[in-house]
Every structure is written in C-alpha cells, then in structure tokens.
Fold these 3 entries.
Entry 1:
Amino acid sequence: DYFSSNFGPSHHIEKLVITAPNESSYIFLPVGIPYANWTFGPVMQMEVLREVFWLQNNLTEMKVPYVDEEGKHRVITLQDVCFKPQSPTNNNCSILSLLNYFQNIYDRLLNTTHDPFGEVIYNASFHIHFCVRYPSYPGGELN
C-alpha cells in the first residue's frame, strides 16, 4: 500500500520455473540441412513440453473461490489478477512461455512432418530453433 500510494501502482510479476526430471540434453539432426546438429536441453524434450502445456493450461483456467471484505462469495481467475500491458485495447494476460511459439495450441506443438523415408524433417524442435533464430519472420510451417 505504501509503495503504491507514494510511487504509483506496481506490477508484481510471478514466475514459475520449470525444470526437467531428466537432466540429459539431446541432439536434433534436421534432415536436409547439411552439418546441422542442434543441441537442446532437457526442458525441450517433447514429454516435458506436453506436461508444461497441461500445467500452463490448468493455471490459466484455474478458478479460485474467494470471500471478499463484504462477505460476498466470488470466483477469482487469472484474468482478475494478471498483468495486461495492452489493456484496455487487449485484455489478455501477459504470459511469457515457450509455448507461445505454438500460439498455445496443443496440436501445433505436436505437429511433425516426415520425409518419404520416415525421417523427421519438421517438428517442435525445428520450429523453436527457427523462431528463436528468425524472430521477425512472418510465416512458418505451423501458421
């Protein structure tokens, strides 16, 4: 209260740090890109990304019962307490997540393309690498 009344409202950013139970990294060898071998850490493994997706989805959809000062029963959601930097034009919460590269859509995370011989030529690892390397590229396989 003292800080807000003297310095204006502040935004308290909450963080959730995800670690992977398996600490080994893996190498992705993209087909058709000579001499490319990209090393990804354990948090980039598909099993971990799937779990992070479900955890993030559950957190964003959570509903918490609450009794206010007047004794009224309410339900609080993330939308009630999150930071919305583009409000009032855009009232979406600011969530910084690796899953944003997939527009937080589960099927896009799972999207995999194989060549005629069964080799993976496009998957989540390739997509993340591409997005990080070319952040302003307007298109992409998952659009």
Entry 2:
Amino acid sequence: MQAAEKEEFRNYLEKSGVIDSMTKVLVGLYEEPEKPSDALDFIRRHLGSAAGVDIDGLKQENLDLKSQVAELTQKVEELTKKLQENEEKKETAAPPTPSDS
C-alpha cells in the first residue's frame, strides 16, 4: 500500500468516526479496574453498543438500582417478619368471650 493510499484510508477512518470510537473503547479497556480475561470480547461488546448510549450512565444506574433492590428486599423481609409475629400473637391470644345479652 502506498503512502497516499494509507493517508486516504486514515482520513476515511477519521472522518467516519472509527478512530474516535476505537480510541474510546481502548481507553475504556485501559481504565477498567478489573481487566477482562478476553480483551477482544470487551472490545466487541463496547464497539457493538448502540450509538449515543451512555455506558457509564447505565453502569451507575445499574448500581443505583441494585442498591434500591437490596433496600426493598430488606424492607420486605422486615415487614414479613412483623406480619408473622402479629399472626402468632393472634393465634396465642385468648378467643373473645361472648358477652351476656
């Protein structure tokens, strides 16, 4: 490939956003705290994401939702326990005595 062809191809990649997209994915891989075992799969998944999708925003939303699920699960467990305690109290309470009429 001649220098002119290489330059033309590089310009094509730059204008079409390929270089920018590849750079973002590679920077994302570099900044990943736990490096994936399959770097190529990481690149495929991140290059395959829809345009305009905020991956970092979705990750944060996912963390927030997981936290909310944990809180709600704990609340359900607490309320279930209270309900069981109330039912046990009803069962052990003496039945009401009929009033004299």
Entry 3:
Amino acid sequence: MTTRLFSDDENDFAPVSKRAKMSKGKGVSECAFQNKLFINNEFVDAVDRHTFETTNPATGEVICDVAEARAADVENAVAAAKKAQDGWRRTTGPARRDLLLKLADLIEENLEELATLETLDNGKPLGVSKAVDLPLVVKCFRYYAGWADKVTGQTNPVEGDFFSYTKVEPKGICAAVIPWNFPLLMAAWKLAPGLATGNCMIVKPAEQTPLTALRLAELIKAAGFPAGVVAMLPGFGPSCGGVLAKHMEVDKIGFTGSTAVGHIIMKDAAESNLKSVTLELGGKSPLVICEDADMDEAVAAAQVGVFFNQGQVCTASSRIFVHESIHDEFVAKLVAATKQRTQGNPFEDVMMGPQVSQEQFDIVNGYIAKGKAQGARLACGGKKTKGKGYYIQPTIFTEVSDDMTIAKEEIFGPVMSILKYSDFRDAIKRANDSKYGLAAGIFTRDINKAFEYADDVAAGTVWVNTYNSFDTAQGFGGYKMSGLGRELGPKVLDAYTETKAVMVKLGHKPGH
C-alpha cells in the first residue's frame, strides 16, 4: 500500500500502520512512500508483524512505522530469489541492459519525489539530494546498463589438441547491506552492477533511512524486473543483516558501513558458506595543504571535505595537515568561511542539515567533548544549533596532535582537525599513520610533489587539487581497515561474477 506524505488535509497523509503529524516545511512537495517489505515483487507485512519507526532528523518526529524484516522474511526473500535465479541468469545482456535503462528513466522521471523523500528521512539539504544524490543514482544505473552486454569470457591459447575458453557467470544470490548517509546512491552502487551481471539482489537498507529504497522497489517492479530478482528488507543489523551474512544460500554479501560491523560480517561469512565479501568501511582521510597551494581553492575543498553531507561521509578529510608557513592565514580564512555556512530546515536553501539520528548526534558531541578535554583549541562551532532536530554546528579544532582521539578515530560528523607540519615527507608519514586508508587529498601547484604524494600515501583514492570528486567510471575502495574489494568502475563486476574455464578435447590433431 502506498501512503501520501503530505496533503491539504492533515488527516489524509497518515502511514498505513501509524498516524504521524508532520508540518509542511518550506519547499516540501507531495510525494508518496511505501512502508512494507518488498519480496517477490509484492509489498508485504513482516511475517511476525513487527515494525519500527523511522524519524525525521530535522524535527525528531516520527514519519511512520516500517515493516521490520527478520529471519523468516529473509527466508522468504531467499526462496523467491532461488526460484527466479535460473531464469534471470539466462536472460541476455541486452535484455538486462534495457531493464536497467528503463529503471534509470523512471528514477529520473521521479527525481523530485525521490529527492524529497531522501531529505525527509536522512536530513540532507533538498538541494543536495536533487543536484548530487539523485543524478548520481541515474548515472550509476545507466553506466552498468552499458556493461550488461559487454561482460564476456575469452578463448585461451592452450597447448595440445584442446579448445579452451572461459565463461563469466553471475554469483547467484547477492545481499547488499546499505548505510544511511547516502541511502539511495549506495543502493544503486550495489544493485546496478549486481543486476547487470545477472544476479538476484536482496537489499537491507539502513533502519534509519528505509523509505527511498522501498520507493525504488516500486520503480524496479514498474520497470519490468521479474519477480524475485530484487528484494528490499528494511530491518536491523543482527536480526536481518546478520541473517543474510550467515545464510548458506546467499552467495555474496556487500556491506558499506563501520569497520566494526565489517569484522562481524567477515566472521559470519567465514563461519557459514564462505560467501564472497566486499566491504567499504571507515576512514580518517588526510588532506595535505602545501605552502604553494591556491589558498581559496584549498579552503573551499576543506569545507567540502568535512562539512558536505553534515560530515557523514566515509571519505571525510577530517585530518587536515597545513604547512606551518601558511597555517595561520589558512585557519583564519577557513574559520571565516565556515561561519558563513547556512544550516537549518533541509527543505529550505541551506548548506547543511541535521545529523541523521539522535544516536549520531550524541556520538559527534561526544567527540567534540573529547577534543576539548584533550587540549585541542575550538576555533569555531562545537554547539547544537538552536531548535528541534539533530543539528550540530560545523566545528573546527586547531592545535590538534596526532595522538588525540579526534585525530585518530572516525567521527562521521562535521568536525575538522587541523594539524601543522613543516616537512613534506613527515606529512606523508603522519598521513599514513592510521589504521584506515580510504582516501587522501593534496593541494599544491607542484606536479612532482602531487605525484610523490599519490605514490606514497596509503589510500584507495587520492584527490589532487580537488576533494570528494566521484565518477561512476572510477573504482572506489580502501586500503588497510577501510575495506575489501572495489565499488564502481569495471572492477566491481568481478565481485558479482565467477569465471568458469572449459576445456574441450578436439577430435583431430592440429595440422591434420
């Protein structure tokens, strides 16, 4: 059943299972949302009828109740996927391509609605949802639609009276556990390559942000994907994601989230059927500002690096190493620019919204308190923005040392640590002194210095004179405890496929 989100009659927008009063924020339009599980191309209640609340982080108010998937629902989704898999894996590449292109078109046609729903459930500014998240979702599905008819095997020049070739086949049933910071985009990162290569996909959206995934399920059905090929199971980690990780008939699991949970998923996969695992995990990414950097561009990039998406970005450049000769000027310009950042109702024209939940709000505030207690100097921010919701001011700490908690642990909030350096080689050494290795950046006019940094920093992505620049065609993933495998680009296709070698004895000898 579909529920209206807003209408002129406040009694007419209640969710299926609970009526929740909400105010129309400025710029909020009507949109519809679904709140049940999606299994076998049908929206259904959970087997045990359990539900959970999803909350508007801008107000702290409940949006609606959502069906909660547990073990019995996972079994139903796996059973539907097993029934669908043999037929789906045999569909032609062009057929899968056309379905993915149709889905991309439907997402684009419903962009305003999906962006509104993403902002309501996640809290990011509507302008960001419309200009960044949704266009990247569309591009992702179109990019992998282009790959659907181009994944091929090869012939092999083997010795003797044999014909050898390889076939590239789908893994089978793949699970995807999605984070809450980019709910729809991260779902696309996993769904698009998985479907393009002929897999059935079972998606567990984050419990904080399930609504756009369920709306996407409606569009998947409308695009014409067969029953059982995609399931959407909103639920919690241990009772849903953990069941998928341990399931003996799930062939692969992909997870984006914390390193701590990544450990659990690896363990569950190892102790069950040794399913394939890809992990995109945490980061504590360094951004080095050299003495010859373009100051204004570096200041702008530092803000994007930490404050974009309220700091809830795995690649956040939360450790900024600034050369001592420009340190004071850089800090002064950065603080002045940060104080100009607008924050408030995400449906208005603002640069920042709230943190995603009360839990995340409390975590970020805890790190701010630790920074103060350990002797870092609070240059700006560090407080709750007045009013309802989970708002935290963009925060800058200076006089930070490498051993402070805020310089070592992933905060996942709008908190920046500025560290001073004098020697470039020492800056690289300090940048690498982390258990993480997801991303890194540098601002310099010296191309040799840029290449030296790119060669020597231990990170899966290195940005030079830019930050947080993404493209679907470029692979993404981490070193060290930032994960396993790669998302995006052609490389991710390997994670969703198996290569089968076939050796055929010929009935004649070569040359006869």
